[in-house]
Every structure is written in C-alpha cells, then in structure tokens.
Specification:
Layout: E1 2-7, E2 20-23, E3 27-29, H1 35-41, E4 51-53, H2 59-62, H3 65-74, E5 84-87, H4 91-102, H5 105-114, E6 118-121, E7 127-130, E8 133-139, E9 148-153, E10 159-162, H6 170-176, E11 181-185, H7 200-209, E12 214-218, E13 230-231, E14 237-239
Parallel strand pairs: 3-4, 4-5, 5-6, 10-11, 11-12, 12-13
Antiparallel strand pairs: 1-2, 1-14, 2-3, 7-8, 8-9, 9-10
Helix pairs in contact: 3-5
The structure holds zinc ion.
Length: about 250
C-alpha cells in the first residue's frame, strides 16, 4: 500500500496545504488540498480514483471536493463511472450543495452523466468493502459533528488509519487499533489547542498505548518533532507494509 500526503497543514497556519491523503492513487481521504495539481506533482493522475472518504464537513477538509469531482468527470479520460463518495450522515446533501455553489447545475449534470458518483453514508462501527478496500468508520469527538476517523485495509492486509480532526476519545482509540500506520492530527505542540484538536502530549499517550503502530503526524500548525513519530509534509509518500507486528 502506498500513502501520499497531499496536505499536511492545519486549517489556517499555512504550514502545509489543507488536509488530503491518497492511498494507492485510488482512495482519497479528505479534500481540502488542491488535489488535481498535487496529484500531478506526485507523478500520478486521477484516473484510478475509486473512492473519496470525507471525515467531516469543515472547509479545510472538503472545499476542494467540487474541483476534484469535476476534474475526475471532465478530464479527457474521465474516471470510470461509479466513483464512490463516502462520509458521515449529511455527506450527500453537503457535497451537492458544494457542487451547486461552486459550479452550478450545468457541471452537476455533466458529472452525473459521466462518472455518476455513488454516495455511501457511514456511521460509527460500519465496516464495508468499497473498491477492494476494507473501510472501517469510527465516530470521534471534534468541534463539529458528525465526525469520523477511518481505517483503510488493502487486500494484502496493509492497514492505514486517519484520525480526521479529533480529541482523545474512544472512537479514536478504536480507529488506531491494528493499523500499520496511523495518520494522526497534531495541531498543537506542548499545550492544548482550542477547536477540538489533539496536541503533542496527547499524541504521545496514543503512541505509548499503540507501540506496534507507526504514527505519522499531520494537520500541523508548525513542524516540530516528537520522538518515535514521523512528521508529514506535502507530497510525502510512504510504503505501508501488511506485515502484522503483533
Ligand atoms: Zn481540520
């Protein structure tokens, strides 16, 4: 499994692009980053995109959705019909409103006639197979509800998790369990941060409780160090093995 960080920054600091992560060029998790341009810079294209997972509806995680869906539909060689857009309750209405606001009815019809996106609504504990990936959803506590963390497992058993935006909560702990790599938000360093986010000491607690999972810290306000953790930057690509470590 290959993970590419498209955006490693938090909402407002400019430390990196807003949230966006790509698994194998096929699964996009969140869409705050300028995904089409970054995907090209990473030497990939959007043709293989089969699934978009939305963690929650904040702008820094979703406002590029109309651009990505439009790019997938209107490219010279559009992605195959049946692109799945999955997220918490309200995702269908939210994405349609973004498309309507961003581009209007004409583009919505073109998107419907080319890739005909399918919506899948996920809830806490859901465990579904989409495009050959096993997706597990876990409700987490953030400043805006509903908010989901995910794990994504490929057919070889490699598993990567995504905190979305979250505080310390049982859903977050469940999302980390069994992951080879966990992409964990770390919005603050050394002191709590407002807005329902994690900071470095809390992330260190999670790492101590999950010694067989490699943590990759992202959603950064500034780039800093935490012993044992990897620190994300835009366009970082990592291979995630499927070997279980206990
Ligand atoms: Zn955010």
């Amino acid at each position: 499994m290959q993970l590419t960080v498209l955006g490693s920054g938090d909402a407002f600091s400019g430390c990196g692009c807003n949230a966006g992560y790509l698994v194998d060029g096929r699964v996009l998790i969140d869409c705050g980053a300028p995904v089409p341009a970054l995907v090209r810079r990473a030497g990939m294209d959007l043709q293989r995109l089969r699934l978009i997972l939305v963690t929650h509806f904040h702008a820094d995680h979703t406002f590029m959705l109309p651009v990505v869906i439009g790019a997938a539909a209107l490219a010279d060689a559009p992605v195959e019909a049946g692109l799945v857009i999955a997220g918490p309750v309200g995702t269908r209405e939210y994405v349609k409103r973004l498309l309507q606001t961003g581009f209007g009815h004409h583009i919505i019809e073109l998107i419907r006639d080319t890739i005909a996106p399918q919506f899948v609504i996920l809830d806490d504990g859901d465990d579904v197979e989409i495009a050959e990936y096993r997706v597990r959803a876990h409700a987490v506590v953030h400043s805006l509800g509903p908010s989901l963390a995910y794990s994504v497992t490929d057919p070889t058993g490699a598993r990567v998790g995504f905190s979305g935006d979250s505080t310390l909560c049982p859903g977050l702990a469940r999302a980390i369990r069994g992951c080879d790599l966990f992409v964990c938000e770390c919005t603050g360093w050394g002191a709590p941060v407002p807005g329902g986010h994690l900071y470095s000491e809390e992330v260190a607690e999670l790492m101590a409780a999950n010694p067989s999972t490699q943590f990759l810290l992202s959603h950064l306000k500034e780039r800093n160090a935490l012993p044992g953790a990897l620190i994300a930057h835009d366009l970082l690509t990592l291979d995630v093995g499927g070997r279980r470590q206990g």
